[in-house]
Amino acid sequence: MRVILLVILNILIFGVFPLNAQSIAVNDPAFPESAFTAEELIQNVLISGSSCAAVELTNFQENPGGISNPSEKSWGYFNANGSSFPFEDGIILTSGFAELAEGPNNDGGGNSGGNWAGDPDLQTILDNTYGSTFPTNDATVFEFTFSSNIDTVDFEFIFASEEYENQFECDDSFRDGFAFLVRGPGIPDDSGTAFGGTNIAAINGTANVAVSTATIHLDPSQDAANGFLCGGENLGVNYFPELYLSNSNDNLNDVPTQFDGLTTVLTTTTVSIVPNETYTLKMVIADRQDNGFDSAVFLRGGSLSLGVDLGKDQVRINFNAA
Q1: Residue 104: is the preceding peptide bond cis (ω within 30°)?
Q2: 3-state SS assignment for residue 276
Q3: Maximum Cα–Cα distance across the chain
Q4: Disulfide engineering: 321 pairs with which of 72, 139, 156, 308, CB 3.0-4.6 Å?
Q5: Quick count: other Cβ atoms within 10 Å of Cβ 1?
Q6: pLDDT above 90: residue 168
Q7: Would the pTM of this model clear 0.85, i.e. be above it?
Q8: What confidence score (pLDDT) does residue 109 get?
Q9: In this structure, what DSSP letter does residue 45 have?
Q10: CB atoms < 10 A from the CB of 199, how many?
Q11: What distance in Å separates the CA atoms of residue 297 and residue 219, rounded to the nearest whole number?
């Protein structure tokens, strides 16, 4: 009888009131930040201690359907929600519906059904990277200006995608993409885009190798049964499987998101800037050719630390990762 009672008690405690959430929460009303505007998210979540900072977006693009239907927002606030996700909270930008990022990974396709405009700068980057021409769709863009009292820029992020796990890693026409473009005094103009500037969404220690499903993915050394090579990968030069984390149903990993795979925590390439000059940062993610098998970028909350107020309409922002 005692055993039966203990079993029932365990079911009631752990079944009805689980000790640890198994999924991140995205745009969940339980968290006040989920009601923030894009500007408020940058000001109060991405920038640490930024209550006195004034952030104004210069370019903002989202899924239009998300304006009237919050469940279709392509961006927003995420919280680890007691799960094992590496970031406690932050901002999520997606090429689909942000809420679909919530785990567990029980949907192999992850199609959002989104269908809105792409981004010409990101298309240029992807076309130049793969040597092929395909349109981008479903672009989410956060673009804003900043000034800083230090001379470098970097922050932390994770890239996740439903195009992982031998879906489209080897098919250039369906590789989603993202970029973090920075322009301003002293920044090299090597992105090849109309925006200009440089793309800091690259793998540190490389010759500006962009983070993507092509450069970071599962290989046979990680999983003999499911790993693969597309051909053309040069380990440590343009291919870095050690930065990949599988989240497939047959893998032992248990990452609390819907995406089939994701990168480890990455830091953007550090670029030198002139203190107190004005710079523009453009964050963009989009589908390539298709409108499904979505991807996301998670930006760690507090990665950008606020410095001293420089006066009216100007703040010092420290872009070193927290």
Answers
A1: yes
A2: coil
A3: 76
A4: 156
A5: 5
A6: no
A7: yes
A8: 61
A9: I
A10: 25
A11: 22
Question: Which residue type, as a one-letter code, is found at position 206?
Answer: T
Paired tokens of 77: 């606030």
Give pLDDT, residue 315: 33
Nearest to 94, CA basis, from 112, 70, 69, 68: 112
| Distance of alpha carbon 163 from alpha carbon 37, whole angstroms | 29
Q: How many CB atoms lie within 10 A of CB 64?
A: 14
Q: Looking at per-residue confidence, does 114 or 316 come out higher?
A: 114
Chain centroid to CA 189 = 24
Q: Which residues, other chains included, contact 9 with Cβ-Cβ below 8 Å and sequence gap of 6+?
A: none
Neighbours of 249 (CB within 10 A): 10
Per residue in 186-239, pLDDT tens?
999 999 999 999 999 999 989 889 999 999 999 988 888 888 899 889 999 999
Question: In this structure, what DSSP letter does residue 124 have?
Answer: H
Cα–Cα distance measured from residue 286 to residue 95, given in angstroms and rounded to the nearest whole number: 5
> Per-residue pLDDT tens for 60-76?
999 999 999 999 999 99
- Averaging pLDDT over each range in 142-151, 163-172, 177-186, which range is the top one? 177-186
Sequence letter at residue 1: M
* Residue of 299, 317, 308 whose CA lies nearest to 146: 317
User: Considering only CA atoms, which of 209, 288, 296, 215 is closest in space to residue 260?
Assistant: 296
Q: What is the pLDDT of residue 250?
A: 63
Q: Which amino acid is at 168?
A: F
Of residues 262, 287, 288, 298, the one with CA closest to residue 96: 287
For residues 315 and 130, what is the distance between their CA atoms, to the nearest angstrom? 39
Residue that is written with structure tokens 């991405």 in the block? 46
Task: Work out the number of other CB atoms within 10 angstroms of the CB of residue 77.
Answer: 24
**Kind plus residue range of the DSSP H or E element containing 271:** strand 271-272
For residue 31, give every residue at least 6 positions away whose Cβ sits within 8 Å of its Cβ, in sequence order, or none.
Answer: 25, 77, 79, 89
CB within 8 A of 185, min separation 6: which ones? 273, 274, 277, 279
